[in-house]
Amino acid sequence: MSLAGPSSLVSLPGPQPGESYVETSISLSASAAGRVSGKSWKQLKSATVRSYIPEGLKTKKWEDRMEKTKKEQAIKKLQAELRDEKQAEITRRKEITLERKKAAEERQRLEEAKAKLTNIANVDGREKSGQVTPQSRSNQKDSSLTSQLSDSLKLVHRALLPTGPQSKTDGTFV
């Protein structure tokens, strides 16, 4: 006998051997066409308790949660420090590069000025003849200025060269 459908068969207990089968009538309650509600054998329902707190927080102790929070905060603090150190290193390298570029530009400017002064001195032919004229005196002043410029260029070059363990022999720096 099938109650629910062709795929789910329910067998009712029949008479055992030696027993007779007696039908008992079940009284129908007053309902439409004698239909009985199936709720009598279903579980009673209760109100659903909803909580938006995750399961991990419901079961742990307060101290455990505080330890976890402290660890997370320490990790975040360490990450921030590392990030700041990395940014400081990047800015330090940029500043070094800018200083080198400025020094190279200054060196180039001084060399151009020196070349200009030597060209002016070489154009004047009186200096070669050994005669002392007012113009040759000015050329002597120019040559002394040129030597002063070259000396200052050397000082600037020495001041800008790094010293210590970070400098390499090939001119590159760490």
UniProtKB/TrEMBL annotation:
GO CC list: nucleolus
Keywords, comma-separated and alphabetical: Coiled coil, Nucleus, Ribosome biogenesis, rRNA processing
Name of the protein: rRNA-processing protein
Family the UniProt entry places it in: Belongs to the CGR1 family.
Residue ranges of the region described as Disordered: 1-20, 116-149
Functional summary from the UniProt entry: Involved in nucleolar integrity and required for processing of the pre-rRNA for the 60S ribosome subunit.
Segments crossing the lipid bilayer: none
Cited Pfam families: Cgr1
Chief place where the protein resides: nucleus
GO biological process, one term: rRNA processing
Subcellular compartments: Nucleus, Nucleolus
InterPro entries: Cgr1-like (IPR005579)
